Amino acid sequence: MSASIVIGSTPQGQPVEIDIKELLATRLLVQGNSGSGKSHLLRRLLEESAGIVQQVVIDPEGDFVSLAEAFGHVVIDGSAYGEAEIARLAARIRQHRASVVLALDELEIDQQMKCAAQFLSALFDAPREQWYPALVVVDEAQLFAPAAAGEVSEEARRVSLAAMTNLMCRGRKRGLAGVIATQRLAKLAKNVAAEASNFLMGRTFLDIDMIRAADLLGMERRQAEAIRDLARGQFLGLGPAIARRPVSVQIGDVRTGAKSVTPGLVPLPTASTEELRELLHDNLHVEPERPDFSRPVRAPRVEPEDIGARIAAGTDAAVPLPSRREPEADTPPDREELLAILNAMAADPECAFQSSTALFQDFTIRCRMKGISVRTLDATAFRRGYAAAVAGIADPDAPEWEDLVNLAKHVPDDALAPFYAIAVAAMEGRPCPDDGELARIYGTSSPRRVQRLLDYLEKDGLIVVRTDFSGKRTVSLPDLGVITIAVEA
């Protein structure tokens, strides 16, 4: 069996080959801007070597799934499996030497990185007796081995970069030959790119990428301009598996096609401006019909003997469908149970610094655990009820709190709990809570925020803060005619 494949031809028509045996030991880096023919090159390489070596393709766009029908690759949908299942699949791929395409196009970039990292790590961790030779092709490698942190989480970047580094730096001894393709060398981690000994450089326009490509090809920097003039599908190749000197390669034809193709020109519509305006605005106010997701009503199971008996008796064998039961209206939840849940949350120290959204979600979960319907629960009412519970008001509807609750309607939701706490202390003849306690109730650890809160409430006329010469502070509520006991602030 020949271990060399023809990847394309030179401008003079001479074939350019790639030695697969040498490629397995020296790895390959492909660079080209979008539209330069980078994926076409990878497809040519995969098609020509399909009968020679096992192939594993990491496909972030789902472009290589067409290899399955023509060459028998197994397509693995990354979105259909969990981390443990992906790892087991990778282990079986090494064991059974199956050629596969890991399609990640249904995942977000963060999930793509984690899935690819788990998959590559499992390939890398195979037992020694399964270290069979395999080409591991990673398209859009800059996504999985970024040179700098981007919008993805640090955890996803760390595990993905570690897996790609293992593939390119230590994969050779385990039979894994990395073939990585990137749009820009500047976006690819240097320790990943540096491990490749074979290069196929396509068209690129940015100076930094042209200079790096020229350096890798052993060209002088004044010759780097030639990379900008390369045609679509034309690459400069160099390496022990390709050629000892840079060679221009026009990539050959392929037998399969990508799912995504370059869009061509389509004739514009011939409708007039008035017709287009009517089409755009016709029935714009009408809500689209929503599908009925209600479960179908199934007929009760009828045994064959019963049908025979009905026929013999001369009765209709048809079984009437049961009438659809209308859903019962939601009954209002028990108020005492809701208050008990609110007071339990207020006493839980873990709830102190959570956001209102997280608190409301926790509240609905606790309600479900008690068998309380959450359909009629209101987030605004919850926030105000929780603020009262944090301040020690067990039941805001009790008669002794009526004036306070009416006054609190003018207080914003986020400032309500500290205001309640100050008012309760004044009404019960206690000192005002200190800044640390007000900060805890406010959900912050910053005393300055508490001071700004007090200033806001005072400017709004809700409270009056007074500190005497001895440093003792009192807080009064003029509308209620109450004041806290003077203590040192």
UniProtKB/TrEMBL annotation:
Keyword Cell inner membrane in record: no
Task: Determine if ATP-binding is one of this entry's keywords.
Answer: yes
Which parts of the sequence belong to the Helicase HerA central domain?
7-77
Q: Which UniProt keywords apply?
A: ATP-binding, Nucleotide-binding
Under the heading Pfam families, the entry gives: DUF87
The record's listing under SUPFAM superfamilies reads: P-loop containing nucleoside triphosphate hydrolases
Which GO molecular function terms does the record list?
A: ATP binding
Question: What is this protein identified as?
Answer: ATP-binding protein
Task: Identify the species of origin.
Answer: Novosphingobium colocasiae
